[in-house]
Amino acid sequence: MEDNRMGDGQVEEYSSRVMHLSALTLCAAMAVILLRRVMGSWNADKTLPPGPKGWPIVGSLYSLGPRTIPACRRFTTLADKYGPVMFFRLGSRPTVIVSNDKMARELLRVHDQTFASRPKLATGKHFGYNYSSVVFSPSGAHFVRMKKIYTHELLSPKKVELLSALRMEEAHILLVDVLRNSGTEANGVVNITSLVFKANLNLMGRIVFSKRLFGESATISAPPREVENFKFFVKSATKLVGLFNIGDYIPALRWLDLQGVEGALLQLKPHQEGLLRPIIQEYRKMSLNLEGGMKQKEDGRVDFIAALVSNDSGLSDENIMAVAIDVMVGGSDSTSTAVEWSITELLRHPDCLQAAQEELDSVVGRDRLVEEADCANLPFLNCIVKETLRLHPPSPLAIPHFSAEECTLGGYRIPANTTAYVNIYAIGRDAATWENPNRFNPTRFKDSKVNVYGHDFNLLPFSSGRRGCPGVHFALPTYKLELANLLHCFKWSPPPGVDFKDIDTKEAVGVVCSRLNPLMASVTPRIPRHVILAK
Ligand code: HEM
Fold it and tell me: Which of 100, 339, 500, 531 has the most CB atoms within 10 Å of its CB?
C-alpha cells in the first residue's frame, strides 16, 4: 500500500504555502476594502452632481466608450441616466457636463465669469502656441486683449459688412466648381464635402491674408504641397481637439502618449507653420516699408494679418499664427459642416428641398444668383438653417470651459478648477423642448422667434456668453449664401442606385462633428448655365 503521509519537510512547505496564500488573500481583501472606501468617499459626495462611478487613477474615463462614437452622443445617453447636470472624474480632472437649456443658462449666463476660462490641454499647448490663441487661452488680460483685437479687426458688424463682396465672390466660385465637377464626373456625382470645405478655406484665406489657396484662381505663391499640408492640418486639428487625450487626464501617463495624440500634434507642426510663417514674414517686411502701416484695400478693408502685424501690437509671430489658425480652422470646417448637413437632410427630405427651391424661384427668379440681401426674404431657408444647426450643431460640445472658483449648478456643488462641457447636441435633441426631436422638420421654426445668437438656451449652436463664438455674424451670412445658391443653381438627388432614405448620417469624431463619409450627390443645373458662369 502506498504511504500518503507527508514527511516533516513537506509539512513545513505545505504550511508555509498556506500562510502565503492566507497573507495574499488578506492583502487582496484589504485592498478591496480600501478601494471601496476610497471610491465610496469619492462617489458618495452627495453635494456633487450624479455621474458614473469613478475608479482610482482612471476615474470615469471608461464611461467615454469607444473612440469611434462622438462624445456628444455618449454624453447624451449618459444624461438620460444621470440627468442634465453630470459630474465625472476624468482621470484627475473633475468634469461637469450640462445637457439641457436650464443648466446651460446657469452655466453660460449666471456663472459666465466663473466658467470663462479654458482647461490647459495638449492641443491648446501645441495648436494654440502655449494657450495664446483666442480659442485656447485661459481667461485674463491676454484673452481679453486678443478677443478684442479679433472682434475689432475682423468681426465687428462694419468689418463683416465690408467682407460681403468676398463672400459673394467665393460663393460664386464654389458654384462654378460644382458645375464643372458635375460635368466631369460620371452621372454628375460630385463630392460636395470636399468642394464646400475648399471654398470656405479659400474664403478664410482671403480675409486673413488676401490669398485664395485652391483651384484655378488660387493666388497663393506657396508650393501646392504646402497648401495641401495646411488643409490636412486643418482637418486633423479639428479631429485631435475633439479627442479625450489620456495624457491630459492622467498626467503621470502623459509620457507614454498612449493614443499617439502628442506625437500627432508634433508631426503636424510643420504643416501648421509651413504656410503661415512665410506669409507673416512677408507682411512684416511690407509693414516696415510702409510708413503709417498697411494700406487699405479698395473695399476699405485691411487684411487681418496686416492689422495684427502693423498695429503696434507687439504680437510675436507665434501669437499671430495662433490667432490666424483660430480663424482659418474655426471659420472653415464649422461653416462647411453646416452646409453639408443641410444638403444631407434636404436630400433625405425631398419635400423640404422642393419647398426651398420654390421659395427661391419666387423671391430670386431663375435669371440671377442669390445675393446676401435676398436671404432676409427667404423664411423657409432660414428655417432650414436653424433646423440643421439644432440637429447637427457643427461644434456639438462647444469647447471645454474651466471654472475659476467653486459654484453651484442645479443645486449641486461644482468645485473650483472643474472642466465644463455644454452638450449643445443633447440640448438640440431634448424631448422636453422639441417635439419629435430627432426628426428633420424645418417648419417647426415657422412662427418661432427662437434664434441662434445665444439668447435662447434651447438652441445654442454658437454657444453663449464671454466664450461664445465671435464668428457668428460672419458665419451665418456665409452659410446662408452658399446654401441658398447651391439649392438655387442645381437639381439635387442621391447618387444613382442610392435611395434618398438610405443617405447616411454617420457622424465623425472631433470638435467639429462633420459627416463621417463625404457627401456625394448627383447635381445638374437648375438655372441656365450662363447665369451660373457669369461673373
Ligand atoms: C457655422 C459656423 C460656426 C459655428 C457653429 C461655431 C460654433 C462655435 C462654438 C460652439 C464655439 C465654442 C463656444 C464656447 O466654448 O462656449 C465657438 C468658438 C469660437 N469660434 Fe466659432 N463657430 C462657427 C464659425 C466661426 C467663424 C466663421 C469664426 C471666425 C471667423 C469662428 C471663430 C471662433 C472662435 C475664435 C472661437 C473661440 C472663442 C473663445 O474661446 O472665446 N467661428 N464657435
Answer: 339
